[in-house]
Amino acid sequence: MAFSIHILPSSDAIAALVLLGLGSFTKGLLSPLRTVPGPFLARFTRLWEIHAVRSRDFATYNIALHKKYGSIVRLAPNRYSLNDADAGKWILGHKTGLDKSNFYYPFGFVDTPNLFSETSNATHAKLRRPIAQVYSTTNLLHYEPFVDTCTAILIKRLDEYAREGKQLPVRELMQYYAFDVIGAITTGSRFGLLEENGDKSGIIEALDEGLDYSAIVGLIPVVHWWISKVVDLLGIKLSFIRMIDFINLHLNNRVSGRSKSPLGCQDFVDKMLQSEQDGKATRTHTFIACAQNIAAGSDTTAISLSSVIAHLCIYPEAMTKLRQELDEARKDGRLSDPATFQEAQKLPYLQAVIYEALRVHPAVGVPLTRVVGKAGAHLAGQYFPPGTEVGVNAWVIHNNEHIFGPDASQFRPERWLSEDSAERAALERNFLSFGIGPRTCIGKNISLLEMLKVIPQIVMGFDFELQRDERSGERYTWRTSFFTKQSFCCLVRKRSR
């Protein structure tokens, strides 16, 4: 009997639970957001969004939710997705940009936030300032030899697929390429994934596991601290520690003089160590820059390169126009082999293809969520009280027909070549593939450098033919956890002229 008394709730406990439930119910009834539509369970629990992320492709599902419910959709009791151009600019913009929500907390260590996981814009600015210069457009020219070396290996690999007639898993190979490039640019050392045609070290798998964890735990971020403490207590070595070991190895080798950049060019480590000597940065800043590159630099570029290849296959008229521009530039001496960054920047259709591929398939497929400040906010005709989580998803905004036109779901590079300056400005304001405002992706220029240099080499040298998946019958599919990673194969042939 004594045991039963201890496990049964007391009358005081029952009363407390009832009062708590009534308090939550009353708060919901009185909330200015009580009329915001959305899935029924999303009004009461965050578990609905967790289930949606795990069971569906959330990038496309988020679009469907807005088509059903309108410009504002409830995703959780205090979390909302918005499909509105003005709201997106206000949430993310330079002048009015809000601090990040705690969704980003699990994307970093508990006690050491990084550029991505830091929620405060003010603190983020302090972290970013000492390393921003190594990402500048001026420094991009120093990284070109690293890109060219990896591109030459990629071309050899594509030659092999063409000779052997094997189906090419495009996104996987593009990730090997992007990973080797970012490794070379960052530490002067490739990971060797292109040579191996695989991830024998398991570093990509480790990063995928970390992203899957963060994408789910970010929806209930309070548990991240507890999970981290349990992992530490049990002495479990997480898989992404391999990435940290890789960075520390190269940093220590460079500092001790055991290694140097192999191409006679300054890589990220060289530039950051020089900043340390000049008193402009610390070793922590150097580590953050290297980790940021490797953790995020391959996925985003690989997804974007894959989108270019797939959509040029699906829309052959765009491939024809791009090849015409590239062939004429090569014939006129305006395009080297390999292409230089400055040459590629002067090719308008090439740039339009890249921006359109990034628009129709952004690398990130979840809302970029922020927290409404003390003054509250009026967004999309709705008042949001302080502390509300609001966000915009690039997939949703990029499919908004009021912004990108009735063909918003179609791949049409010509939209970026409009002579109407106001129309072009509206497209650029709502282009969210790299984010906008103070939290714009710091590696944006590096990703564009890789794409502008490698796409001419691929397009001018090879033909690609999308293949249907035997089970699904689809030619081009993707799946979202945080990134929207594609799954598709192509037959590759040497280009027929």
Automatic annotation (TrEMBL):
CDD domains: CYP57A1-like. One of its GO terms (biological process) is methylation. One of its GO terms (molecular function) is methyltransferase activity. Heme binds at residue 441. Pfam families: p450. Belongs to the cytochrome P450 family. Its cofactor is heme. The lineage of its organism: Eukaryota, Fungi, Dikarya, Ascomycota, Pezizomycotina. Keywords: Heme, Iron, Metal-binding, Methyltransferase, Monooxygenase, Oxidoreductase, Transferase. This is Pisatin demethylase.
